[in-house]
Design a protein that fits this description.
This protein is an alpha+beta fold and about 170 residues long. The protein is built from 5 helices and 9 strands. The chain has a 4-stranded antiparallel β-sheet, sandwiched between helices. Strands 5-9-6 form a 3-stranded antiparallel β-sheet. A two-stranded antiparallel ribbon has the order 7-8. Strand 2 (about 75) and strand 3 (about 80-85) form a beta hairpin. The radius of gyration is 15 Å and the shape is globular.
């Protein structure tokens, strides 16, 4: 896959790159997940819910195995990861997270572009995700539509979320 390099809004002098996960990035990707969960989701979910989600992925050995298995896309700014997302062979997007300090600067859009390009390469016509209340506006902006709203019990706590999908075509 060709790397996508361009300046982020507000980061004009810094190089942005979209690529696959590299060994050694496990801790920083785990931090992106934790910080995003804590700082961005706090207006929509309780502290107990957020901490339960974070605790689920706190074991670094399990986290490493997950990343090796999913091989997520990573957006970097000046060589440092700031966002990551996973695409499954079914078109399911999982673990789509951007560090709070980089939200609104284009990293999420570039990550989505990389995932869409890979999905098209795999011959997929539809992408779908279970989306938090917090992430729903971003996914809507990316062209996703709400298919279902639900409040499942996630790690022993109810959490409102949306099932969203998008038909994809060539970029």
């Amino acid at each position: 896959m060709k790397q996508d390099q361009r300046p982020l809004v507000g980061q004009i002098q810094k190089e942005i790159t979209t690529r696959r996960y590299q060994l050694g990035e496990e801790k920083i990707l785990q931090e992106i997940y934790s910080e995003s969960s804590r700082r961005l989701n706090s207006k929509d979910y309780t502290p107990e819910q957020i901490e339960r989600w974070i605790e689920k992925h706190a074991d670094i050995e399990e986290w490493v195995l997950r990343l090796k298995g999913t091989n997520p896309f990573v957006v970097t700014v000046a060589g440092t990861p700031v966002a990551f997302g996973e695409l499954e062979a079914t078109g399911h997007i999982d673990f789509f997270y951007c560090h709070p300090d980089h939200v609104g600067q284009g990293a999420g859009a570039l990550l989505f572009k990389a995932i869409t390009a890979e999905a098209l390469k795999l011959g997929l016509a539809t992408l779908y995700a279970e989306v938090s209340v917090t992430a729903q506006p971003f996914f809507t902006k990316m062209g996703f539509q709400i298919i279902e709203e639900r409040a499942p019990i996630i790690y022993d706590a109810p959490a409102k979320q949306f099932i969203m999908s998008k038909q994809i075509t060539a970029l």
